[in-house]
Amino acid sequence: MAMAGLLGALTLAAGCGSGGGGDDDGSDKGRRPEGARVTIRVPGDAPTISDAVSLTQPGDLVLVAPGVYHESVKIDTARITLRGESRARVVIDGRLRQPNGVVVAAPGVAVENLTVRNNTQNGVLVTGSAAAVAGLPGSGGYDTGDEPVSFLKSFLVSHVTATRNGLYGIYAFSAQNGVIEHSYTSGAADSGIYVGQCKPCRIVVRDNVSELNAVGYEGTNAGGDMYVVGNRLVGNRVGLTTNSDHQEKLLPQRDAVVVGNLIADNQQTQTPEQADGGWGIGVGVDGGSDNRFIRNRITGNTNAGLVITATADLTADRNRITDNTFTANGVDVGWTFPTATRGQGNCLQGNALRTTVPAGLADTASCPVPAKSPTPSGSWASPTAPAGIPFTDVATPGPQPEFPHATTAGATVVPDVPALPDIADIALPSPSLLAAGARVQTS
Asked: Residues 115, 94: contact at Cβ < 8 Å?
């Protein structure tokens, strides 16, 4: 009876959107005209978001009215849009009983203008991995078997607030051709925004605010047209990391571009503890290679502004640090390597900086350097990380910008491949963006 009612509601929506259909005798009642796109409203046309999603066909919009929805939403219909009428007042709340708030398991899906909170693992998960969709407790959904990587192709996460989630706020894993933009993450016990296991990624992470997390942004085994652009990564334990990890496929991490970001004051005590004990670091590169860090403002990180190191068996090579501004960090740039995996070809050019470890890197490792030139290594005394707080106790976020015309715009068409940024047009963030509550804006 409940499903019959839902189908009836969908029929009405389709009829309004397409001029109706069916024979006079009602023999086509309940059928949707081929190619018709509809708006399914929650709770007007379906009582829950999951019920509404189950009725969708490609091109549909699920539009959710303000309310708190205690459910986990899985989207396996391609090219639909899930959008809240109000970013702050449409809340998917896992009540610490669900692993994920929203799981996107089909291509071309847009998730927009809502809040996801209190999930034991992830706020929004976008993935082509069956293991990640299964969400086994404590696994993080990592792929460690011998099967080839299965990618989800194309996605958009925009104007989403993800707060107080047990692993990641917004998690794109084994996914390609996507954009994460205009979103806010806090209280993630691992990282606010995470991109993992993609090569080439063709993913743009832009104009997001990530604060009060263990890590603001993390990219693991993610590279190839991988752009982190114009974000505010402030007040975490660690601002940004890009690294290689044997828990995921597609080793090693390489070829990401980090440009025009504000990365500041990443030693906030009222945050969940970082799994590896990281603290007071703006940017950390661990076993990542061929990455570019360009025109970022990196300031006020008590341990180090930017650190390059290596894993026990994966080197960090040919990373280029150019035209960044470093101020008020414990050490502006520090390179420290295990003897067996000492880096090669890492270099700096055109940066405003004060201190490096080892000293004099701006001269001894000035770009360009030969690709196999040994990278100088040193060490320094790092501060001890203080105890953190449970992710459930992180401060409640304030109001965030709304998706424009959320209640009147049609479904969002997600391109098969996103437009990639022209990094020449991306400027160094202004010092004015260090003010509390300021945002990084990109064109």
From this structure: no
- Reported confidence tier of residue 339, pLDDT bands at 50, 70, 90: confident
Is residue 40 a contact partner of residue 55, using CB atoms and an 8 Å limit? yes
Q: Are the C-beta atoms of 331 and 359 separated by less than 8 Å?
A: no
Q: What is the reported pTM?
A: 0.93
| Strand partners for 352 | 325
Q: In whole angstroms, what is the distance from residue 45 CA to residue 320 CA?
A: 53
Task: Count Cβ atoms below 10 Å from residue 276 Cβ, excluding itself.
Answer: 14
For Cα atoms 360, 361, 364, give the angle at the middle one, nearest 5 degrees.
90
8 A C-beta contact, residue 114 and residue 160: yes
Calculate the dihedral angle through the C-alpha atoms of 166, 201, 203, 69, rounding to the nearest 10 degrees: -30
Token pair 């055109």: residue: 350
pLDDT in tens, 212-262: 999 999 999 999 999 999 999 999 999 999 999 998 999 999 999 999 999
Task: Judge whether 229 and 261 are in contact, CB under 8 Å.
Answer: yes
Looking at residue 212, what is its pLDDT? 98
Enumerate residues 6+ apart whose C-beta is below 8 A from 436.
none
CA distances from 81 to 174, 177, 217 (A): 20, 16, 25
Band (145; pLDDT cuts 50, 70, 90): low
* Nearest to 155, CA basis, from 123, 193, 110: 110
